[in-house]
Amino acid sequence: MRKLIIILILLPMMVLTAKAQNPEFPALPSEAQEYMPHESQSFTDGLMYIIGNAIKELTPDLSAGIKTAVFLLSAALATTYISSVNGSAKKSAELVCIIISGTVLLSSTNSLVHLGVETIQQLDGYSKLLLPIMTTALSSEGAVTKSAALYGGTAIFSSLLTGVLTKLFIPVIYVFIVLCIADRAFDAGVLSSLKTFLKWLMTWILKLVLYVFTGYITVTGIASGSTDAMALRATKITVSGMIPVVGGIISDASEAILVGAGLMKNTAGIYGIFAFLAICIRPILKISVHCILLKITAALCGVFGLKSQTGLVEDFSQAMSMALAATGSMCLLLLISTVAFMKGVQ
Amino acid sequence: MDGLRSYILSIVATCLCCVIFRSLVQGKGSAGAAVNTMCAIILAMTVIYPVARFRIKDLSQYTQTLKITADSLADDGVNISQSQLRSIISEKTCTYILEKASLYDCDIEVDVILSEESIPTPEQVQITGSASPYARTKLSQIIENDLGIPKEMQKWTYQN
Fold it and tell me: Which of A123, A279, B31, B65 lies deepest, with the highest CB count within 10 Å?
């Protein structure tokens, strides 16, 4: 089906007698293949297909999240009842509630964080396979300088982001969770400050990498794009100075090559966008659902007046937000890079 | 990255130890003040010492390898488009010559050799087949005037 889409898009090239080299796209991870559009008529239809399929499979995650929420609310209710019956046992009851809630939340959070790590690694691995195809396709369109610059920048930043996320960000999420549990259990002020600092640090690092990468892509696109555009104009001027028949032949041939290369580049780009979305859509939706359910649970726990447990659930939802930000930022970086490749030469 | 992670974890671990230590000796007069001072010094050393020893690694080899790979991929793209361009120009030039030859009832096969410049132009032509002397002269003139291939670069091979 993937080859059918490629053939349908490349069909007009036969009319122009342009013989572009059909790229062989690398195979997607098996979990992502089922989300790839099979019979999409347009880019929007393909996107809707991916999102629709991913949403359909959220039911088990929703029910698991609701079970966790019900358990947490039951723990809050039990703690409130014990505290009202025996005032002296209030602190102990709250401590036990924190430990039990923390244990339950930790198990679900752990699996989602691992899912995030796996997704980041899959995205990085797939980008290393697709990037050379995009580079070659863009270069064959005449954007030689731009393609090399984009490849270098994307490779460096995606390696940097993968390293930051898997070796620093994810372990710090676990440290954050431990600090949250300790802070809520023992109400130590310095731990609260440390927690806030860690969250700020991770958010700042993510934003910094994405901002610098976007800036690099923008500047590279302008600088190297101008160089390539000048080179193409110089070629056109040279061709126009030739004998009319030869000039006409070369001009027609160049036009056919450019159109063919552009089609190939856009095909590879659209496939790349679909592939990256197919890899990360399910994990992102899964983590998002969990995050939203935790927020709702925290709001409901607040009704029982248990500040510590409400705070703990909110902290875990923040940890989930961090995991979501990590996965989403990797996907966003690769999508920005793919769109930059598709932009081509002006 | 491992270094940065160890640094952050060491700060967090030191903070946790200081918190536990302070809570154990809390409310014990001057001993509490001494503990606070000691914790502050230990925490400051944990934060400052690794930063003072930090040395930026030389990444030039990594970036050099990346540059070579990027240039190689870009060259691949250029080679692909160049070979396709040469193929199309050769094909269209042959078609043009054959169209003109058909006007003079020539039964020929044409092989065009292009120049090696970045914009390839027809440099030489090899014509095989049968053509009357008049047709050959006319076709030769057309090739020279329209395609810029001089007569000395036109090789005719007759077939009976």
Answer: A279
